[in-house]
From TrEMBL:
Membrane topology, as annotated: Multi-pass membrane protein
PROSITE patterns: MFS
Identification of the protein by name: Lysosomal dipeptide transporter MFSD1
Domain of life: Bacteria
Function: Lysosomal dipeptide uniporter that selectively exports lysine, arginine or histidine-containing dipeptides with a net positive charge from the lysosome lumen into the cytosol. Could play a role in a specific type of protein O-glycosylation indirectly regulating macrophages migration and tissue invasion. Also essential for liver homeostasis.
Organism phylogeny: Bacteria, Pseudomonadati, Bacteroidota, Bacteroidia, Bacteroidales
Organism: Bacteroides graminisolvens DSM 19988 = JCM 15093
């Protein structure tokens, strides 16, 4: 009887998964907007005169405010201080505002001749918008990760994180698949407009989730058996930073993701220029990892929940990435099917590492430090998401222009792919060190998540 009385919203399987579905929609819209401009790189160069450095600057802008104005750190502190609902709403509003500004940059300012800080007005304002969007998207990301840790504690936590990431990847896949055909059928800016509409839907979805979350908080408060969660204090930042597990996860995260997200942003062009894949179809190939992750991330997540072995899974994922990027770098291997198979392998790696890495953070840190821990890890990851596209854009401009057709540069991707291979190799080394640290400090990364009844 008392068990029934203490039943909370998240004890019902249906309700906790429904709550996850609602916030997952917000993240799906965020991932759509995040990736929707990437397949348009060549069209942006042809129609708006955006060169590779402009594109690299714009792509890196996603992380600019997060890195240089420490927005992610503030976001994490706000999350641990003011909670999931406030932070999530704030993040969703920032995403809508940033995307609206980005849209303005590629519509109203498309033909402007003004130059700000050495960049065309359209490039600069779109980048400012994308930067604001990036703050919202990253803060939404840590908020959702923390809310899953809260709603799924002692339950299917890694599966839930996997499902959320998988659903978000539908947004990425849709962006990569639809951007070029939609831009060709309508207008170059239409894909961004679609993203803006989706984000407004995502904002409404987060408000709906907040109603459920408020109810859950009340139940937790009323439940005499639930243990009061320790409040976050600024001293926790020191505790997080002095934990070797934090640095290893953060380094693995920045290195691994630096060879996935920034690579994908340039990959549509790689598919067309090196592998001769039709431009209308190239985005769908680049979206394959997202599609694969849709199925595989929850599968690997439930494996981590039931069997553990997160440490080994991260190592295998990193090793696969070395193979993929090294093969992409070899000039004589240029069959379209090789490019496709490699993208599928990248998709498997891209499912293995996140499904093991994100739940591992929840094992290393207590609940009240989680928001800040995720924020600090995302912060370090964002240094890569800012620096790597800028680096690749610069390398392309300086060393990789192979020819110019109708004023549009063609790029050779050998050096950029070797750079990505280097990052992947370092991520493997860090994965191995994490395994050693796991043994030494007893994080329990090899253990299953689901509590045995
Ligand atoms: C959960 C994880 N998210 C991130 O790493 C974000 N910091 C960056 C998201 C960028 C999306 N293109 C993930 O997506 O695996």
């Amino acid at each position: 009887m008392s068990v029934e009385l203490n039943k909370k919203l998240n004890d019902s399987k249906f309700t906790r998964w429904m709550a996850l579905g609602v916030v997952a929609f917000t993240m799906m819209a965020a991932y759509f907007v995040n990736d929707v401009m990437a397949p348009l790189k060549t069209m942006l160069e042809g129609q708006l005169g955006w060169g590779s450095t402009d594109f690299g600057f714009y792509t890196g802008a996603y992380s600019f405010l997060n890195v240089f104005f420490l927005m992610l750190i503030w976001g994490g502190l706000i999350l641990d201080r003011f909670g999931i609902r406030f932070t999530g709403k704030l993040a969703a509003i920032l995403m809508v505002f940033g995307t609206a500004l980005q849209y303005y940059g590629i519509t109203e300012l498309a033909d402007s001749n003004s130059v700000y800080f050495g960049y065309k007005a359209g490039v600069f304002i779109s980048s400012v918008g994308y930067s604001i969007f990036g703050v919202g998207a990253e803060v939404a990301g840590i908020t959702v990760t923390k809310l899953i840790a809260k709603w799924f504690k002692g339950k299917e936590m890694a599966t839930a994180m996997g499902v959320q990431v998988a659903l978000a990847r539908i947004g990425s896949q849709a962006a990569y698949t639809l951007a070029i055909p939609v831009a060709k059928s309508f207008h170059l800016d239409t894909p961004v407009l679609i993203g803006l509409v989706l984000l407004v839907g995502g904002l409404i979805a987060f408000f709906a989730f907040s109603v459920l979350d408020k109810k859950l908080d009340k139940q937790i408060k009323d439940d005499k058996t639930s243990v009061d969660e320790e409040k976050f204090s600024i001293k926790d930042v020191g505790a997080i930073l002095s934990n070797p597990g934090f640095w290893l996860i953060a380094l693995l995260c920045v290195l691994f993701y630096s060879c996935v997200f920034p690579f994908q942003k340039f990959a549509t062009e790689l598919m067309v220029s090196k592998y001769g894949i039709d431009a209308d179809f190239a985005g769908s190939i680049v979206g394959l990892p997202a599609l694969g992750a849709l199925i595989l991330t929850p599968v690997f997540g439930s494996l981590v929940d039931s069997k553990g072995k997160a440490d080994n899974i991260m190592i295998i994922g990193a090793a696969m990435l070395i193979f993929v990027h090294l093969t992409y770098s070899i000039p004589s291997i240029n069959g379209w099917w090789v490019a496709t198979v490699l993208m599928i392998i990248l998709g498997i790696a891209f499912s293995l590492v996140p499904s093991a890495m994100w739940p591992s953070v929840a094992k290393i840190f207590p609940a009240h430090q989680l928001g800040t821990a995720y924020a600090l890890i995302f912060f370090i990851q964002n240094i890569g998401l800012w620096g790597v596209p800028n680096l690749i854009g610069w390398i392309q401009k300086e060393f990789c222009i192979s020819e110019t057709i109708n004023g549009v540069n063609q790029y050779d991707y050998t050096i950029p792919m070797l750079v990505f291979t280097g990052f992947a190799t370092l991520s493997l080394v860090i994965g191995l060190l994490l395994k050693v640290a796991n043994k030494k400090y007893g994080y329990g990364l090899e253990k299953a998540n689901i509590e045995k009844k």
